[in-house]
Amino acid sequence: MKVFVNPPNSLIMSKLIEKLGHEPLTMMERVGKKVKDEGIDSPPLNITEIDAEEGLKYASSEVPSGVRGRMALIGPMIDEADAAIIISDADMKFGCVGCARSNELINYLIINRDIPLLKVKYPETKEEGQQMAKKVKQFLEEQK
């Protein structure tokens, strides 16, 4: 099963999802496919006009271009997902988006999909982290 996590890019969540026998849908993988050349090129220079058009499927032309650019990568992952996990109140270092408008749109699109969904709060303590991991494990085991 393919699992999308918001905020995307959590290496810890990706490893947990893999360990439990599922496929995490990650930004690292998507951006990695965009990087074609070694050297000074960076991923934003590898975004094509087609990518920008893909972003319009998820966000109108009136939204900031950064939102559309993010959605060009994140939107297709949401479409592919068989299940999703939303982590609320996450620390800015936890995920990669860091854009309130993108996060609102991502959560809206996830919630409106008819797929299994787990919502958990970002842990502030070791005990809360253990409880979150248990909830994620239970959720993913139920999806098999």
Description:
Pfam families: DUF2112 (PF09885). This is Methanogenesis marker protein 5. InterPro entries: Methan_mark_5 (IPR012356). The protein has 144 residues and is an alpha/beta fold. It has one domain: Rossmann fold, CATH 3.40.50. 48% of the residues lie in helices and 13% in strands. Helix 3 crosses helix 4 and helix 4 (65-80) runs parallel beside helix 5. The longest helix has 17 residues, at 126-142. The radius of gyration is 15 Å and the shape is globular. The model has no long low-confidence stretch (mean pLDDT 84).
Write the layout of secondary structure elements.
Layout: E1 2-6, H1 11-19, E2 23-25, H2 27-34, H3 49-55, H4 65-80, E3 83-88, H5 100-111, E4 117-121, H6 126-142
Parallel strand pairs: 1-2, 1-3, 3-4
Number of domains: 1
Sum up the overall morphology in one term.
globular
Q: At the third CATH level, what is the topology name?
A: Rossmann fold
List low-pLDDT spans: none
The CATH class name reads Alpha Beta
The total strand number stands at 4
Name the descriptors:
single chain, 144 residues, Rossmann fold, 4 strands, globular
